[in-house]
Design a protein that fits this description.
Shape: globular
Low-confidence stretches: none
Distance between the termini: 10 Å
Oligomer: single chain
CATH superfamily of one domain: Aldolase class I
Strand order of the largest sheet: 3-11-10-8-7-6-5-4
CATH architecture of one domain: Alpha-Beta Barrel
Helix content: 25-40%
Strand content: 15-25%
Largest sheet: 8 strands, parallel
Order of helices and strands: EEEHEHEHEHEHEEHEEHEEHEEEHEEHHH
Mean pLDDT: 93
CATH topology of one domain: TIM Barrel
Structural class: alpha/beta
Radius of gyration: 23 Å
């Protein structure tokens, strides 16, 4: 493999190896600090990160507020305290080596408030901020205010152009790199646009060449691109190294750092990763964010898929082919279905899916009474973790609502990500992973269930494997 040369990121020469930020408590101070100590760029998640008490125990994120807005404020306080704590742990663990970055989601609740408070509370401990899930126009201004580099996560040259034209051109000196995240291969939420087919993946090289061409037009020839999504063996990416059409480049790893000794995920989660096969990671659109996302196909995702398939369109009055009356709810209010759909609905009811829940799209989904109760409880308990949530209809505005009906086809993402991060149940919770996760079972590095330290993994990556 070609030589893997150091690269300047956030003001220091480091290995071109970046730990992906991932979600709630899945990359923390221990894992990111270890990655930086090995000479790369460690990234801890600033999304509702864990804080610990004087005994070192995780402080449970339980909510006392009676209203969504009260719980929303509690969530913000948890997020700030947790992220500052993880920044300190990462700094201490890194031992002044490498670089420490924090990852946030622009569409998470109160992203600007949280980012300002964390950068103020952790001055000098964080060298860069990576940010995706939306169009983070203000990330440049906020980062520059604290003398921190910013790293927008984008999936197309068109998206970066919009960000540059609107905001980034005013803060060019603090643009550390542009993270290109492959929307077909990356784990978690993906940046697929309406113009792109989720079933027809495109090669990342031409898309990155287009991004570099766009960046060069803006005078960013020396600004690195960080390739994220689908990176496993670096020898498979040799075409990117010393390629003038790509320019300076680094590689981000999201899935492989999950299976390290410093990774905070549960032993059950690590064990499950070693059993995955090709096709076990599903690109789906059940997320309450409205974005596509990739996760391991398990009982949790299968139930969502089945729930969505038990679905029929209805009208409030007889219209066209919707002539068959069907009673809904405890009061038996009539809606109207087509004749074939009524037959489907009656069959589902006979199977025990007796609760018909309305969606914002004038459809009904059919679930068991227990599932209906859980959906309603989760919607009621919403703490406003997103700027706008399709599942609960919370929105970060004066009304506290999207103005649409809550969508029972989705789920509470805060609840399931907290549960999988702090428990052993990997079948009934959302388990994010990249589409290459099946390679754990094929890669000889992990034979006999071997789980490396972060340093061992970073050394392995440098060999091309």
């Amino acid at each position: 493999m070609k030589a893997l040369n150091p690269i300047v990121i956030s003001g220091r020469e480091v290995l071109p190896l970046v730990e992906g930020g991932k979600g709630i408590s899945v990359s923390n101070g221990e894992s990111s600090g270890a990655w930086a100590a090995a000479g790369g760029v460690g990234t801890f998640s600033g999304v509702n990160a864990d804080a610990r008490d004087m005994r070192g125990e995780v402080i449970p994120q339980t909510y006392q507020g009676r209203t969504r807005r009260e719980r929303h404020e509690e969530l913000i306080a948890f997020a700030i305290g947790g992220a500052v704590h993880q920044a300190r742990v990462a700094w201490e663990t890194a031992g002044a080596q490498g670089r420490i970055h924090m990852n946030i989601l622009w569409e998470m609740a109160a992203a600007e408030r949280i980012l300002n408070a964390v950068l103020e509370g952790a001055k000098g401990l964080i060298h860069g901020v990576t940010c995706g899930a939306g169009m983070p126009y203000r990330i440049a201004e906020i980062s520059a205010r604290y003398g921190v580099h910013y790293y927008p996560i984008i999936s197309s040259a068109r998206a970066f152009r919009a960000l540059w034209k609107r905001a980034y051109h005013r803060f060019q000196e603090w643009l550390g790199a542009v993270v290109y995240e492959d929307p077909w291969l990356a784990g978690g939420h993906n940046g697929l646009s309406n113009a792109e087919d989720p079933l027809k993946p495109e090669s990342p090289l031409p898309r990155i060449v287009e991004l570099r061409r766009q960046m060069n037009e803006f005078g960013l020839q020396k600004t690195p691109i960080i390739m994220a999504g689908g990176v496993w063996y670096l020898r498979e990416w040799e075409d990117f190294l010393d390629n003038p059409d790509v320019g300076p480049v680094a590689f981000q790893f999201g899935t492989r750092p999950l299976l390290t000794q410093e990774s905070p995920i549960s032993p059950a989660w690590k064990k499950r990763l070693l059993t995955l096969q090709s096709g076990d990671v599903l690109l789906h659109r059940f997320s309450p964010t409205g974005f596509y996302s990739s996760a391991v196909r398990n009982d949790f995702l299968n139930e969502l898929d089945e729930r969505s398939h038990r679905q029929v369109a209805f009208t409030a009055t007889p219209v066209g082919e919707h002539t068959e009356a069907f009673p809904v709810g405890a009061r038996g209010r009539l809606v109207y279905l087509t004749s074939p759909d009524k037959a489907h609905a009656e069959a589902w009811v006979a199977q025990g899916f007796v609760e018909a829940l309305r969606t914002p799209d004038s459809t009904l989904i059919f679930v068991t009474p227990a599932r209906a109760e859980q959906i309603h409880r989760d919607q009621i308990d919403c703490m406003g973790c997103l700027s706008a949530c399709q599942f609960s209809n919370w929105a970060q505005n004066e009304e506290g609502s999207t103005g649409k009906k809550a969508d029972p086809r989705s789920f509470c993402i805060q609840k399931t990500l907290q549960d999988i991060s702090h428990g052993a149940d990997v079948e009934n919770q959302l388990m994010f992973a990249g589409h290459n996760a099946y390679r754990f079972a094929e890669d000889p590095f992990y034979s006999n269930g071997f789980v490396p330290t972060v340093r061992q993994l970073v050394m392995r990556l440098q060999t091309g494997d």
